Amino acid sequence: GDILDGYLRTDGVWILTRNKQSYQTNNEKECAEKCEAERRFNCRAFLFTRKKLQCLTLAENAKMTVMFASMDAVLYEKRIYLLECKRGIGKDYRGTEAKTQRGIPCQKWAEKIPHKPNYTPEKHPSAGLEENYCRNPDGDENGPWCYTTDPAIRYDYCNIPDCEDQVTHTGEVECMQCNGEDYRGELSRTASGLECQRWDAQEPHIHGFTMKHYPEKDLKMNYCRNPDGELRPWCFTTSPTKRWEYCKIPHCTTQSPVSGPGSQCLSGKGEDYRGRIAVTESGNACQHWNTQFPHKHGWIPDRYPCKGLEENYCRNPDGEKRPWCYTINGSVRWEYCTIPACDERQQGITGMN
């Protein structure tokens, strides 16, 4: 696969870090190669600036330091260092859990008190033995562990959740149809393993996605949902430095349920409108959804297979007030369309009989 698949990308941010190295590279892939080859420190992330083509390899990621806005920068964080769950026996676990299953704080791997360790950063440089984080340097079948700070207990295992369990519920793998707008499963971690913030909470992130404002979107607990027509379900995270992130939910292997012909008139917000009106309320003709001229946009039909983005017909893929479209007028990006309401049409038909 692509070298960048192992990284989580965040546009327009910069992070403060003491331990970094600067390189001149032509693109993000070359910068990723510098991060993989970094020997001065453990490279957890890199920053790439498009204008200067500057590459900074970093010893810290956004979980460990301060993040702020920087328009030209792109931050790539190694996914393995963001996961707070373990895959298999957790030999590659690089999360930040630092207490045992009994709640005893872990001893730092580089220290010799209260226990003299057999596993040290010097002896096992690629085992991620940093700070006092739980690790599995010896491939223990019971998963990550650490030496403890209790003189009476040399080592103990840590309680790290399985990544697989984050996607499984009642023994079956949950899946999504289309873009997951109707996903009602109980996955509550993001693709990088961050725990989701509850929808009814406003900490650490203040937001407007509440049951009151979106009563039909099933914003329960901290489950991944897609209330706003995103590419796939997402959630706000419990990390103060990462506002939101997509969740990793597999597509169902069975075909999407074939929806009916859709409505030919306006009902509610018109999200199921599949009529052929292709002109806005002010008379501008609509731009075809599969073109990027005169207006560039993200509503690409292939990405949103269930939104009815055919030809240049008015649609409501994002839960707007009513159907709309991009226009072929270069100075008017988008406008609402005038769609006859279903009840008005029905009244008209009845009046003719």
UniProtKB/TrEMBL annotation:
Q: Which residues form the Apple domain?
A: 1-80
**Ranges of residues in domain Kringle:** 84-163, 174-252, 264-342
GO annotations under biological process? Answer: proteolysis
Superkingdom per UniProt:
Eukaryota
Cystine links in this protein are C175-C252, C196-C235, C224-C247, C265-C342, C286-C325, C314-C337
Provide this UniProt record's keywords sorted from A to Z: Disulfide bond, Kringle, Repeat, Signal
Asked if Cell division is a keyword of the record, the answer is: no
A GO-annotated cellular component:
extracellular space
What terms describe the molecular function in GO for this protein? endopeptidase activity; signaling receptor binding
Pfam families from the entry? Kringle, PAN_1
PROSITE patterns cross-referenced by the UniProt entry: KRINGLE_1, KRINGLE_2, PAN
Q: What is this protein called?
A: PLMN protein
- Organism equals Furnarius figulus
